[in-house]
Design a protein that fits this description.
Two copies of one chain form a homodimer. Chain A is α+β, with helices and mostly antiparallel strands and about 450 residues long. Chain A folds into three domains: about 260 residues, 2-Layer Sandwich (BirA Bifunctional Protein, domain 2), CATH 3.30.930.10; about 45 residues, no CATH class; about 90 residues, Rossmann fold (3-Layer(aba) Sandwich), CATH 3.40.50.800. In chain A, about 30% of the residues lie in helices and about 25% in strands. Chain A is built from 14 helices and 23 strands. In chain A, strand 7 and strand 8 form a beta hairpin. Chain A is globular, with a radius of gyration of 26 Å. Chains A and B meet through strand 2, helix 3, strand 7, helix 7 and helix 9 of A and helix 2, strand 2, helix 3, strand 7 and helix 7 of B.
Chain lengths: ~450, ~450
């Protein structure tokens, strides 16, 4: 068995490490940290650092490969964050995307009217938990801005609160220009914004976030089988990126919790340290969206069945993955604190190689070896993301790579010049193997690309 | 010589096709079209369709590969679009990122005070070009929004007007967490927003756009050589993606046109149908940005030289590529209307294979062959973006692939079953070659990956 194959990298169901440890490791190692940190941060906004951006890009590339590249029946698009405001009237967001809020006249805090038991004590009224509350008022969660420069043509616009609406408004143009026939899908990865009342749980609930969504348009007679197909596909995806089977589940929505546009919905939940939470949703949206946009735009979006000449509005099955949430699941799932013989603790991120931000670290044993180490580094960089580190003792350098989840360390030592070999250390087993330089690429390829 | 090597794909200096033809081809074929098109569009916002997103993703991936992956001295990040508002005070955008504007009381139009000769006639005053103008007033180009939900904590914030500032505010965190030493760079690809008075020239000047920026931090004594190094690197990049040598140039800024933060600047210009225009800038920003953020944040961003113990603020060389502008240059450069023998005109996009949205089209001669064609399609999709098309006559299908710049068409015919061969047609020469199925992958690989 190949030591580095995916199966040997898949994690057993370990106890999860506490969130505060993960958050501080993420900042210290440059995965994810507060936006505008030197100005004290800005609540609900996060920056991905050098390791975080590679993790997120790997996830997005795997999604695009699976959902777009490998399929003749799905095409990708990339639309603007600011869309025509009528879009959000048609979708119902202008009228309905709001929470009922109440203010406390004493402590000036604002609470969701339906979650008042979360509100805690009123800080202005010592010893009392009684707030002095206003009437509930709807608070729209969309971020608004003004565009246009003419004195008479400035208009309000919104930052999209979800990426999917432009997949509906673009349906006709995309179908016609890409010569797709029903059934087919349109997919997109991009940012969306919501003015969340209480951003929380690190990047789980933030005000700026990324979604990877796909809308699949099908004939009404086939909607149930496509819903089931995509439910199974999307659950499998989360297994394939390495999430522990015991921490992911499908959770169907009860009929009383379905959104107004949905006929059926099933979540992919992950068991975070803060509980089971949705990282993806698969929704049967019926003909709600195309019908609404037909009504608001006056443009016909219905189709004619080529065989029966029957006119119909396609039904839509949506798959909607939270990119940041899935990154957080990958981080939570990977982080392990292992007790070694002798009692030492080793912190190790057990990422599957396909999502690991850095695939290989190149570590010369001494700065005197940097010339040949740089050559190896340059060669490996053509194919993988590589980290080069030449300072500090080798044991500490290994541990730093364990902490960021690098599957393989390549150590260049004083014998490398003579025997043309390097030492390759595997992250999970810590086993070391002497590998000939001219076989290094193949050695790593076999282990890193297995199952991807 | 390999028929599909980059050199044979590089375009001679042809006359450019007019912009209106490019714009309508982009919409018809699904490269790029107006955002929210069914609602009449929204001025200054564009959507990338199935072909456009692949073109743009190819460009961004090539940039990331060259600027981040291949270099031990540059790391990537991905930061939020909404940053702390102090960022834009420090950068000077709150006070200075504005144009002096005047309104016409009669026709209600707004004009830049320094460009009044662009304003044309006043539409409310027939036969007269005289406007009834107000005093000039500064009009900030940043898009503003309100975030935060507490009654007492709602704050104004801006959508970033450029992606680079978070590379400065994150400088210390990124340097420490990624163990980088001066000189090193931080790179990012992402969206930015400007409320342009007059969006124009298709995606050249829009209100939502994408930048690929890198800030390189170096010791003051090395700034001149790094400026020259990056100038040459970035010019070479635009050659490498296939832009015609005769249509790109470096243009150094005169001292009187330098931005307030810049000590030296050189543009990479492309000769569009609407003239020579900047697609990338390389700037010596000196210590302006780190000094400003030190002043506004109170956080020390200066360094101590390890050898001399001297304290210094690193100097910054910036490379800033407009992603949409470079996509537009690629489209303009590729589009050709070729007169064939017999007088027919063939529209062909002569993209270099590495940027072409679709690498291979799979075309069964008849729907009866779709089973074996789908098998070939599925195999090729593992590696490349593939388009599958089984309807219409084969000549028209070839022309459609020419129009979107697909380098190779693979035709499956009735002999394929017997001789296990397919016909491969090359876009530029229209030459056809019979290729064994078991050598198809290697045949295409040799031609598509040459020079990349």
């Amino acid at each position: 068995m190949v030591a580095g194959s995916d199966s040997s990298f898949s994690s057993a169901t370990r106890p999860l490490v506490a969130m505060d440890k993960l958050v501080s490791l993420c900042a210290a190692r440059g995965f994810i940290f507060a936006s505008s940190e030197i100005y004290g941060g800005i609540n609900g906004f996060w920056d991905y650092g050098p390791l975080g951006v590679e993790l997120k890009n790997n996830l997005k590339a795997l999604w695009w490969q699976r959902m777009v590249r490998e399929r003749p029946d799905v095409v990708g698009i990339d639309t603007s964050i600011v869309a025509h405001p009528r879009t959000w009237e048609a979708s119902g967001h202008v009228d309905n995307f709001s929470d009922p809020m109440v203010d406390c006249r004493a402590c000036k805090k604002r609470f969701r009217a339906d979650q008042l038991d979360d509100a805690g004590k009123c800080s202005s009224r010592e010893g009392s938990s009684e707030h002095d509350l206003t009437e509930a008022k709807n608070f729209n969660l969309m971020l608004e801005t003004q565009i246009g420069a003419s004195a008479d043509a400035t208009q309000s616009a919104y930052l999209r609160p979800e990426t999917c609406q432009s997949l509906f408004t673009g349906f006709k143009r995309v179908r016609e220009s890409s010569r797709q026939k029903i059934p087919f899908g349109i997919a997109q990865v991009g940012k969306a914004f919501r003015n969340e009342i209480t951003p929380r749980n690190f990047i789980f609930r933030s005000r700026e976030f990324e979604q990877a969504e796909m809308e699949f348009f099908c004939h009404p007679s086939e909607r149930d089988e496509w819903f089931e197909y995509w439910r199974a596909q999307r659950l499998q995806f989360h297994r394939d990126i390495g999430l522990n089977e015991g921490r992911i589940r499908n959770r169907p929505h009860e009929s009383d919790e379905l959104a107004h546009y949905a006929n059926a919905a099933v979540d992919v939940d992950y068991e975070f340290p803060f509980g089971w939470q949705e990282i993806e949703g698969v929704h049967d949206r019926g003909d709600w969206d195309l019908s609404q946009h037909t009504k608001f735009s006056g443009k016909e979006l219905a189709m004619t069945d080529e065989a029966t000449k029957e006119k119909y509005t396609p039904m839509v099955i949506e798959t909607s993955m939270g990119v940041d949430r899935t990154c957080l699941a990958l981080l939570c799932d990977a982080l392990d604190e292992e007790t070694l013989e002798g009692g030492d603790t080793r912190t190790v991120m057990r990422f599957a190689p396909k999502v690991a931000p850095v695939k290989v670290a190149v570590l010369p044993l001494s700065k005197k070896l940097s010339e040949s180490a740089h050559k190896i580094d340059a060669e490996l960089r053509k194919r993988w993301n590589v980290f080069y580190d030449e300072s500090g003792n080798i044991g500490r350098r290994y541990r730093r790579q364990d902490e960021v989840g690098t599957p393989y360390c390549v150590t260049v030592d004083f014998e490398t010049e003579d025997d043309k070999k390097v030492t390759v250390r595997e992250r999970d087993t810590m086993d070391q193997e002497r590998v000939p330089l001219d076989g290094l690429d193949a050695y790593l390829h076999e282990r890193l690309e297995a199952g991807s």
